[in-house]
Design brief:
Length: about 130
């Protein structure tokens, strides 16, 4: 049995706790901050979703190996494989909307917020006696 105090087990606990913390930040975030967080999380390759998909693929390979050696039921391998496939499909569905999330995450240019220069009177420009 795996030592519950081993580094990988503690790491999994830490990641789960960090996800809870991130969720709390998302709850309190402004729309722009929420979009920035979601853009990072939902990235199908380098974000949390992509990395979780990769973890499920690895878990599926692990479970396949153990199920072929009769150490795990085949259903475990199949369930992890389905989870990996579904996460991949979800990432593909979300990918269609990443432009909208990225647009909200990007600070808008401040059009119209600059103070215009005062108009100069035509009678006083360049005339000296």
């Amino acid at each position: 049995m795996t030592d519950p105090n081993s580094y990988p087990v503690r790491l999994a606990d830490d990641i789960a706790g960090l996800l809870d913390t991130l969720n709390e930040h998302l709850i309190q975030a402004t729309p722009q901050e929420a979009a920035q967080i979601l853009a990072k999380v939902l990235d199908g390759e380098d974000g949390v979703l992509g990395r979780m998909t990769g973890l499920m693929v690895t878990g599926s390979h692990f479970a396949k190996d153990l199920s072929t050696r009769d150490l795990l039921p085949t259903e475990v391998w199949l369930a992890l494989g389905r989870a990996a496939n579904e996460l991949h499909d979800i990432a593909l569905d979300i990918d269609e909307h990443t432009d909208a999330i990225a647009a909200l995450a990007t600070p808008q240019s401040r059009v119209g917020t600059t103070v215009p220069k005062p108009a100069v009177s035509a009678t006083g420009v360049g005339r000296h006696r």
